[in-house]
Here is the input.
Amino acid sequence: MLADVGLVRARKDGRNRYYSLDSGGMRSLRESLDIFWTDELDSLVAEATALQHPNLKENPDDH
Here is the structure.
């Protein structure tokens, strides 16, 4: 499964399979996780701020 999504490379030698990390796949995974967690943490900060300051609005044009 990890080879199917490009995270590892598999090499078969007789009955054995040897796996190694695929740096390109790992880099892509890292970028995706960075984007995900940045968005999630930004949302968490916004929620925490809204709870601390319920009278503040994100967009003052929303009346």
Remarks:
- The longest strand covers residues 8-13.
